[in-house]
Design a protein that fits this description.
This protein folds into three domains: 1-138, Rossmann fold (3-Layer(aba) Sandwich), CATH 3.40.50; 143-202, 2-Layer Sandwich (Alpha-Beta Plaits), CATH 3.30.70; 207-384, Rossmann fold (3-Layer(aba) Sandwich). It is 36% helix and 16% strand. It is built from twelve helices and twelve strands. Helix 1 (25-34) packs parallel to helix 5 and helix 5 (113-131) packs antiparallel against helix 8. The model is unreliable at 367-384 (pLDDT under 50).
């Protein structure tokens, strides 16, 4: 039976003109209408108000929406309230995706309305793409095992610092399979990124959700050297992402050349994502975690440091300039550090020039172990 197509409602929050005054909402609404599976688009002065929640309820029922994308403030600010409002409309609260247009677009790029709007379009496109991969949940997000892929190697169990994963043996086949104790799982995602056989995944930050965001941002990059530089930032939910929000709250101005993807922990960042982004034309990838001793998950950043050091060697081996990839550390109360790290990385990439894989024709585009013609590198876990 063919799955039903998503019916997405997009709602923008003007936040009392503190967002709409800095982003061209008319242009953004027209762009949203063009996105596949978007059924309704509307802007409101305050999406967090009871009036807006009531109107969203009515429109959800009228247009038979089954998921929502809200372009507003940081998901760390009103994310829970928006999910409750969605639940009141009859939509599963986990079928809501939030595009951070206030702190991480309007407020840090307030001097260039056109560039800020272009970034808002990208962030919206990424949020809509991710929303299509959302699944209704009846429990909080966490890791799970795809048993027919599990080899019983035990890497996931050794990676988990919280004792949430054990190996059990099937009494009939003798095969060892990993099992997640959801009561103990903190949903950091370190085990998912560590699994060599794509047998681990997690709700809330699944492989499909994350790669959908990457693919939405990178669409068309291979066919052109503009916009340049195209930079992707993976930021952890507890340290570097709130630092980015804090930079917005302090109205620190930054070059609008980067797009942020939020992860639960830097240890959730799969090396496959970096390879995928670079093979699809991204000019640089930045991974930001919390400083050592400050990780919300007690050591996820240490795993990130080790894993990404190995990735740098792999990038060189397959023909990429490892300077296009960087890992750094920033705590939630260090917006200046976030600004400086990102701005310095942008300067580095501008000196390197566009990713050599980006070219106007196939004849000019080099091939490597990760790229052959127009087909991007894909790990088996990403094949539908």
């Amino acid at each position: 039976m063919e799955a039903m197509k998503p019916r997405i409602g997009v709602f923008f929050c003007d936040c009392g003109e503190t967002v709409g005054g800095l982003i061209d909402f008319d242009r953004l609404e027209k762009f949203a209408v063009t996105l596949e599976d978007v059924e309704y688009v509307e802007s409101n002065r305050f999406m967090c108000s009871a009036d807006a929640a009531g109107r969203m309820n009515q429109l959800t029922k009228k247009y038979k929406l089954d998921r929502l994308v809200i372009g507003a403030c940081s998901p760390r600010v009103y994310g829970d309230e928006f999910r409750k409002a969605a639940e009141n409309t009859g939509i599963n609260p986990y079928m809501v995706e939030i595009a951070n247009l206030r702190e991480q677009v309007a407020w840090i790029h307030s001097t260039d309305r056109d560039e800020a709007t272009a970034k808002a379009e990208d962030m919206l496109s990424m949020a809509v793409a991710r929303s299509k991969q959302l699944r209704p949940l009846t429990r909080p997000p966490g890791a799970f095992v795809i048993e027919d892929r599990c080899s019983g190697c035990g890497i996931c169990a050794s990676t988990c610092r919280h004792g949430a994963i054990v190996l059990r043996e099937d009494p009939w086949t003798g095969k060892r399979v990993a099992q997640v104790d959801r009561a103990e799982c903190l949903a950091c995602g370190a085990c998912v990124a560590a699994c060599p056989s794509a047998a681990m995944d997690m709700e809330g930050f699944s492989n499909e959700e994350m790669t959908a965001e990457i693919d939405a941002f990178t669409e068309g990059l291979l066919e052109s050297k503009e916009p340049f530089p195209a930079i992707l930032v993976f930021a952890c939910n507890w340290c570097s992402y709130p630092a980015a929000d804090f930079a917005g709250l302090k109205r620190m101005q930054m070059e609008p050349k980067f797009r942020v993807i939020r992860t639960p922990c830097s240890a959730r960042v799969d090396p496959e994502w970096i390879l995928r982004a670079l093979s699809r034309g991204v000019d640089g990838v930045l991974v930001l975690g919390g400083k050592e001793g400050h990780c919300h998950y007690e050591g996820g950043n240490v795993k990130t440091k080790t894993r990404m050091a190995l990735l740098s060697k792999v990038l060189r081996q397959v023909g990429y300039d490892a300077d296009r990839f960087h890992v750094d550390w920033v705590n939630s109360d260090e917006p200046e550090v976030f600004r400086d790290i990102v701005n310095n990385f942008i300067e580095r990439i501008e000196k390197l020039g566009p990713n050599p894989i980006r070219a106007p024709s196939n004849e000019e585009r080099p091939t490597s172990a990760l790229h052959h013609g127009k087909d991007e590198y894909k790990h088996p876990s990403y094949r539908r």
